[in-house]
Specification:
Structural class: alpha/beta
Distance between the termini: 15 Å
CATH topology of the largest domain: Rossmann fold
Helix content: 25-40%
Strand order of the largest sheet: 2-5-4-3-1-6-7-8
Catalytic activity: O-phospho-L-serine + H2O = L-serine + phosphate; O-phospho-D-serine + H2O = D-serine + phosphate
InterPro entries: HAD-like_SerB, HAD-like_sf, HAD_sf
Shape: globular
Largest sheet: 8 strands, mixed
GO molecular function, one term: magnesium ion binding
CATH superfamily of the largest domain: HAD superfamily/HAD-like
Cofactor: Mg(2+)
EC number: 3.1.3.3
Radius of gyration: 21 Å
Length: 330
């Protein structure tokens, strides 16, 4: 199938027909605004031309590149790991928030907020080597399935965003993930799924240390918070990891507001956009109030700041990749 599509594209190009780089996007103002921005910033001689070294585009992950309902996928991973490790921790049967997870009451398990989540994260992510953690994530992605769609979690990605990532890179942009999710968690699948290599992933993290285990040098994750890459932390994370202010930023919630604000406040052409979850039939419909991915301030201020609000319902003719095609960007 891919070979046929590639040959068809080459034939169309040879005959002078333009190939749509964003076929999963409906023709309209938002699609044209995105394509126009990319064209004017990458065309030599354009007054808005941006040098290749400055072409940085950043993307949130949860709710922007892949789905985030009914819970953040990394939270589901954490719950599954608690259940898997429970036989080695009999104390968890009576110790919160683990007891609630084992009873299937995830709402109660998360009622303790960030403190409870950090406790569960430390229990499932720390005191193991980075290689061991990576393998646990790979094993989970290979076996776990989304409760609604029955897809693998790394197939719950948005086809329109895969196309956008590929088109940006084809035009000389470097694409980065900037997410509140765990940096080590996302680095396991980001390159295969999105075409974004590990060094271009920025996320929240635990502290780590170097040590020898059985004479072998390893990096060990330890149960201490290192950095939260969310809200005002996102511009800081970008500065510390990239060192260049992006020219384009894509998010989906108020947790991405500061990242988009900082990106678009720079000189020259800038692009900021929110993905709006307004398609209850093909995905989910939510913005505010919402237990996850709340978008209130962003919706209110986007028009005043000339930021785009990308409607899943109106701007995208396809949400997820076809089931016979792997969820993977070139």
């Amino acid at each position: 199938m891919k070979t046929v599509i590639a040959l068809s594209s080459l034939l169309l190009c040879s005959q002078g027909f333009a190939v749509d780089p964003l076929p999963s996007w409906n023709n309209g103002g938002n699609k044209q605004a995105v394509l126009s921005f990319i064209k004017k910033t990458t065309t030599k001689g354009s007054p808005d031309f941006i040098a290749p070294s400055k072409r940085i585009a950043v993307f949130d992950n949860d709710g922007t590149l892949w789905a985030e309902q009914p819970l953040y996928f990394q939270a589901i991973f954490i719950f599954d790991q608690i259940k898997k490790r429970a036989p080695q921790h009999p104390e968890w049967k009576t110790q919160e928030p683990f007891a609630s997870v084992l009873k299937g009451d995830t709402k109660k398990a998360l009622a303790g907020g960030k403190k409870a989540l950090l406790k569960m994260t430390a229990a499932t992510h720390a005191n193991i080597t980075t290689e061991q953690f990576e393998q646990s994530v790979r094993d989970w992605l290979n076996t776990a399935r989304h409760p609604k769609t029955k897809r693998a979690y790394n197939e719950m990605v948005y086809q329109p965003m895969l196309e956008l990532l590929e088109h940006l890179r084809a035009k000389g942009y470097k694409t980065f993930i900037v997410s509140g999710g765990g940096i080590d968690f996302m680095r396991v699948f980001a390159e295969e799924t999105y075409g974004i290599p590990p060094e271009q992933v920025i996320g929240s993290s635990l502290k780590a240390k170097y040590e020898l285990r059985n004479g072998k040098p390893v990096i060990v994750k330890i149960p201490e918070l290192n950095f939260i890459d969310d809200k005002a932390g996102k511009p800081v994370g970008i500065h510390q990891h990239i060192g260049i202010r992006p020219v384009a930023a894509f998010g989906n919630s108020d947790g991405d507001f500061e990242m988009i604000e900082w990106t678009t406040s720079g000189d020259g052409p800038r692009l900021g956009a929110f993905v709006h979850h307004d398609d209850a039939q093909r995905e989910w419909q939510y913005d505010h109030p919402s237990h996850i991915g709340q978008l209130k301030r962003g919706l209110s201020e986007a028009p005043k700041r000339n930021w785009l609000v990308l409607s899943m319902k109106n701007d995208w003719n396809q949400i997820f990749p076809s089931t016979d095609e792997p969820a993977k960007a070139k």
